[in-house]
Amino acid sequence: LLVSSLTTDKASAHLKVCGGAKKVVISAPSADAPMFVVGVNENSYDPKMNVVSNASCTTNCLAPLAKVVHEEFGIVEGLMTTVHATTATQKTVDGPSMKDWRGGRGAAQNIIPSSTGAAKAVGKVLPELNGKLTGMAFRVPTPNVSVVDLTCRIEKSASYDDVKAAIKTASEGALKGILGYTDEDVVSNDFVGDSRSSIFDAKA
């Protein structure tokens, strides 16, 4: 069963209802549920776990990329910015939002700066990067497909060609079907329906 309840306690309630769901996947980062990102740490999943988190779409985009860069070059610190498509929590027109004042502005009329937990979540699925990444989001008026821009300070000296080569190799090997690579002149709509978690745009 896939749910959006954010805690193990709330998500566990679904194990007792819905015809007796045997497993629950939280479709967002969770403060207390074990978190997994395919291609990054799914091998540490224990079948005894009944409630898990699959993190967020942004984390699923960022984590495979960060994994490759860190394994090849060593990330000292990094800043990620996501240009994020509209989500279900946003308003169609300006309205009250006491928790996040800017989040109450109309989604279709604005570029809205917002917080994101993706950088922190990467530290949960890649413990060696815990505390090394930070980030922010811009919510934009598009219905689907988001962008993550990752800027890193790395341990090993590397050119952009070196970074591209490492990512291309991973996309054709261990992370094939999860991490993609493109050097074509694409835009966001070209990725609608793409099943991969993350596609690296070499020309961006």
Can you describe what's shown?
With 204 residues, the chain is α/β, with parallel strands linked by helices. It folds into two domains: 2-53, no CATH class; 57-201, Dihydrodipicolinate Reductase, domain 2. The protein has four helices and nine strands, in the order βαββαββαββαββ. It has helices spanning 8-12, 57-73, 118-125, 160-172; strands at residues 2-3, 24-26, 51-53, 75-85, 112-114, 133-140, 147-154, 179-182, 198-201. The protein has a four-stranded mixed beta sheet with strand order 5-6-4-7. Strands 1-2-3 form a three-stranded parallel beta sheet. The protein starts with a strand and ends with a strand. The relative contact order is 0.17. The mean pLDDT is 92.
Q: Topology, pairings included?
A:
Layout: E1 2-3, H1 8-12, E2 24-26, E3 51-53, H2 57-73, E4 75-85, E5 112-114, H3 118-125, E6 133-140, E7 147-154, H4 160-172, E8 179-182, E9 198-201
Parallel strand pairs: 1-2, 2-3, 4-6, 8-9
Antiparallel strand pairs: 4-7, 5-6
Domain Glyceraldehyde 3-phosphate dehydrogenase NAD(P) binding: 1-57
EC number: 1.2.1.12
Family: Belongs to the glyceraldehyde-3-phosphate dehydrogenase family.
Going across the major beta sheet, what is the strand order?
A: 5-6-4-7
Helix coverage percent of residues? 10-25%
Total tally of structural domains: 2
Give the termini distance in whole angstroms.
37 Å
Number of strands: 9
Q: Provide the β-strand percentage band.
A: 15-25%
- Give the CATH H-level superfamily of the largest domain: Dihydrodipicolinate Reductase, domain 2
- CATH top level of the largest domain? Alpha Beta
- Give helix and strand order, one letter per element, not per position: EHEEHEEHEEHEE
Instruction: Please tell me how large the radius of gyration is.
Output: 18 Å
- The stretches of 5 or more residues where confidence is low (pLDDT under 50) are none
**Helix vs. strand class:** alpha/beta
Number of helices: 4
Net shape: globular
**Topology-level CATH name of the largest domain:** Dihydrodipicolinate Reductase, domain 2
Reported for the largest beta sheet, the result is: 4 strands, mixed
Second CATH tier, the architecture of the largest domain: 2-Layer Sandwich
Query: Residue-averaged pLDDT, rounded?
Result: 92
